[in-house]
Write a structure and sequence with these properties.
296 residues, mainly alpha, 2 domains, two-stranded antiparallel sheet, 4 strands
């Protein structure tokens, strides 16, 4: 397994991503935003490779730029007026910085969700919630697999239709539209049939019945206990910092931020350790394998 963090207990994975995504959604502090954005992009590239690089360059970067531009065009709050647009509405420094912060937050959360989808597989989610909420956990795991499975399936259908001359690149506009509708119809039919087959299969296996047992390869080992302790300690420090207002910033009407102090640095350090833990595990694992190869 390439990612060492993926081999940890599912509860550790879920705890990490839940906390990271919540922190990334609500912390608009510039330092915390930059830390979270950098770690999210690096970890996403580590997990998904070149696909993640293309996604961030061609999708996320334009999204960030657009989101950063839109806010000052519609929000004119703030006391630092830079200039006026044609209709007399002011463009303020505060609205520009807030737009950039929100854009960074959006891209960061999307990257963290990409990492979540790569690490938290459906079997892990069902393992954690299958006995507590069997129906909801099954539906949720199917929803998470919805987009990647449909992308693969529509590619297969398109290739099959191209072989018989009925793809969206054959014929005039009318025939292309007709072929496209036919491809979508095949995809929807497959999705409905697959849903019925999945429901019948799970029902025949007794899924959700009381007393049903299930095989599991997951064990809560010593490494998981250490990681849980580290996560709880870092989360506690971050929450204390949140209570003290260290993780917050006011953009309107004027930018107001806590001055740098020893406690601030301590909170930032805890945030860095918490976010970088998966990459630290991967680095340690790589060093371990290199050491084994050299000694063998």
């Amino acid at each position: 397994m390439k990612d060492a963090f993926s081999s940890c207990h599912p509860f550790i994975n879920l705890f990490y991503f839940t906390a990271v995504i919540i922190f990334s959604m609500f912390f608009l502090h510039p330092a915390l935003l930059i830390i979270s954005l950098l770690v999210a992009v690096i970890y996403s590239i580590y997990l998904n490779g070149v696909k993640s690089v293309k996604f961030n360059l061609f999708m996320m970067l334009p999204t960030m730029v657009i989101a950063a531009i839109i806010n000052p065009m519609f929000s004119h709050a703030g006391v630092t007026i830079l200039y006026y647009i044609d209709d007399g509405n002011p463009i303020t420094l505060e609205s520009i910085l807030y737009g950039i912060a929100v854009a960074c937050m959006l891209v960061t959360v999307i990257n963290w969700f990409a990492c979540y989808n790569a690490v938290m597989t459906s079997d892990k989610f069902i393992y954690l919630f299958g006995r507590i909420l069997p129906s909801l956990s099954l539906i949720f795991s199917m929803v998470l697999r919805f987009v990647p499975r449909f992308k693969v399936r529509i590619k297969e259908i398109t290739e099959a239709q191209r072989c018989i001359g009925k793809s969206t690149s054959n014929g005039n506009i009318y025939h292309r539209i007709k072929n496209g509708i036919n491809i979508i119809s095949i995809l929807i039919t497959w999705a409905l049939e697959n849903g019925i087959e999945t429901a019948d299969s799970m029902k025949s296996r007794g899924y959700g019945l009381k007393g049903r047992t299930a095989f599991s390869i997951f064990k809560f080992e010593k490494r998981d206990r250490i990681l849980l302790a580290v996560f709880i300690a870092c989360t506690t420090i971050i929450l204390i910092g949140t209570y003290q207002g260290i993780t917050s910033i006011k953009y309107y009407p004027a930018i107001l931020i806590k001055p740098l102090s020893v406690l601030n640095i301590f909170v930032y350090l805890a945030y860095v350790i918490f976010l970088c833990t998966p990459m630290i595990l991967n680095i340690m694992e790589d060093m371990k394998w290199k050491s084994i190869k050299l000694n063998s």
